[in-house]
Design brief:
The protein is 41% helix and 12% strand. With 302 residues, it is α/β, with parallel strands linked by helices. It has two domains: 68 residues; 182 residues, Nucleotidyltransferase, domain 5 (2-Layer Sandwich). Strand 2 and strand 3 form a beta hairpin. Helix 1 packs antiparallel against helix 2. It starts with 10 loop residues before the first helix and ends with a helix.
């Protein structure tokens, strides 16, 4: 390039940004302009070994001029009615992307994974139909006021293999008591924590490094792996995607508002589990044994 010396990024760095943008788009989550800028700035600072000045306001426009194969388009919101109607165009596009990745890399069943996460309110009983006097108000079921939240990240392989659950407690630190009730069969559970009990960018990367990478590598014997995610922002950060690219991990994102149709773990595991867990909480409340507050330790098998 004639003005390459005047550019903030080197040619290999800019090539990396371009490839990343196209890969993101092919996997179903095209990056925002701010994400492209942040990735370029990250590469610039990594090369310099220190914090560098931010890119100028015209850096994106000059980047686009150098790469006319890109087009800037406004994202559109999927109408709720179309989502509920299981929009066929959306679903066909997803399966076209999935089959394209499988053909391109020759993926087999032991190289394809599905990931999902689910939050559980500890001690919250399930709603149920009750028989009562006509005319009375809806009856209440007693539950713990604390409403302690536990988030669980699960990953299954298409060959039937299951990775270790990654359990996020709503706490300010890590406590050994989380492990005290685990049986020998469940000793591989992985635990972490966050102030709000939700998944964030740091925890998603921690799960990727501690659970998915080492355990899926054993299943696949180091071959390329394709984890299918939902579109949560923590799964498309530069750090997350960069780690995947450097460890032979491919990425595919489920379409927005489609998990009730396309997410196997949500349909086949988490929804039934949450239903039956709520039933067990209701049975526990009715048993008269609920003197002790239900806590996170009660959530795990003893």
């Amino acid at each position: 390039m004639a003005h390459e010396r005047q550019q903030r990024l080197t040619a290999p760095e800019e090539k990396t940004v371009v490839k990343w943008c196209f890969d993101q788009d092919d996997r179903g989550f095209p990056p925002k302009l701010s994400m492209v800028r942040n990735m370029g700035l990250h590469l610039d600072r990594k090369r310099l070994g220190k914090l560098s000045d931010t890119f100028g306001k015209n850096w994106i426009s000059r980047f686009l001029k150098r790469h006319p194969n890109f087009a800037v388009k406004l994202s559109t919101q999927l109408e709720r009615q179309r989502a509920y109607a299981k929009d066929p165009e959306l679903i066909q596009d997803y399966f076209a992307k999935l089959s394209g990745v499988i053909r391109q890399y020759g993926l087999k069943a032991d190289q394809i994974f599905n990931m999902d996460e689910k939050g559980f309110m500890i001690g919250l009983a399930a709603r149920a139909k009750l028989l009562c006097h006509r005319g009375r108000q809806n009856p209440h079921v007693t539950h713990d006021e604390k409403r302690e939240l536990i988030m669980i990240i699960e990953m299954i392989c298409w060959n039937g293999s299951v990775l270790s659950p990654f359990i996020i407690n709503k706490e300010a630190g890590h406590y050994l008591g989380w492990h005290s009730n685990l049986s020998e069969e469940n000793k591989d559970y992985q635990f972490s924590y966050s102030a709000k009990g939700w998944t964030d960018d740091k925890l998603a990367l921690e799960w990727l490094e501690k659970v998915f990478e080492p355990e899926s590598w054993v299943i696949c014997s180091g071959q390329p792996r394709l984890p299918v995610f939902n579109g949560h922002g923590s799964h498309i950060t530069y750090q997350f995607v960069s780690y995947c690219l450097s460890h032979n991990i491919l990425l595919l994102c489920l379409p927005s508002r489609s998990t009730h149709v396309l997410q196997p773990l949500d349909i086949g595991l988490f929804s039934p589990y949450q239903h039956y867990y709520g039933i067990e909480v209701d049975n526990y409340v009715r048993s008269g044994k609920n003197i002790i507050v239900i806590k996170s330790l009660s959530f795990f098998p003893s």
